[in-house]
Design brief:
The structure is a single chain. The protein has twelve helices and 15 strands. By secondary structure, it is an alpha+beta fold. The chain is globular, with a radius of gyration of 22 Å.
Length: about 325
Amino acid sequence: QIKLKLALLVVKPKANKSIQVQRSIQISAFDLRSIHSQGLQLHGLSVTWNIWTVNACYCLTMSELLNSNHIDEYDQNGFLLIPRFIDDCKINLLISDLSWLVKSQIETIDSYSCDILSRVNMQSVHGLSELLIYLTELSPEKQGYVYDQVNRLPWMHQLASNDILLCYVRQLLSQNVAIHTRLNIVMSLPHESWHVARWHQDTFYNQSNHLVAYIPLQDTYSLNGSISVAPGSHINGLLEHDNKQPNNKWIAINNDIVQSFPKVITPNLKKGDLLLFNGHLPHTAHINKSKTVRFAITIRFSNLEDEFFKNRGWVWEDLSTAGSNALKSKNNF
């Protein structure tokens, strides 16, 4: 098999903007000979062959592009749901990686933990949940080690730079985007309240024009703390954040403003769904009242063409000192 990387030109449905992305394909030596002699039409690609390179210019299929209705929905509501963006097989590979991280930290503390380590299914979210709860009981600090290591997993970097995901992001933000340096996995432990993200806008904590990709690793609903959003409220810009509570690290949106939201919904997200939302969209998580940990990926993309962000030299750090300090705090006293 020979791997060929192709430069693709994608036409944005609105404003007739072009988006440059990369796509790789695999072809056999037999196909390569066919290309050399007569060119190749492969999955809608018009491919021209020469001795060293393969060049292609084509549009992604409609199933891989957001259409104008999708973009209008995002603009109006501040979010867009793409069902089943990642299949179970790929998610289970990530779960396996996370389980190994948790298992490794358990082994540094408890040499007599063979029972739980041999019993759990390392590729199931329930097995990962059981391991993480056990590790947290042994050492909350080491649970933090796992959280930090997620940012360096190859799986997460591959997702963040996924061709289709980047195509969506460019359609909704701009041609020139950047991936935030922090790739997160939310790990919401049962009945834990300190880390629960109360009503907020991501732009309070990272004041740049950006978009969030949120992907749950299992089905989410009200019982296990699924997020709620306020559709359309993103158009009001950055809202006042002054709500602090002693049992929660987040600085939340002013309660009177929250009460004035015209509409609040709690979508029941399925494993592998992709929720794309505007950085100004008010949203909140809820306390996980189930018996298992709720896991969700969050990746942020910033618009490099945004004037405020560009004038700051595209600096992410210290854009919101109060928010940044709150998220790093251990208590509110």
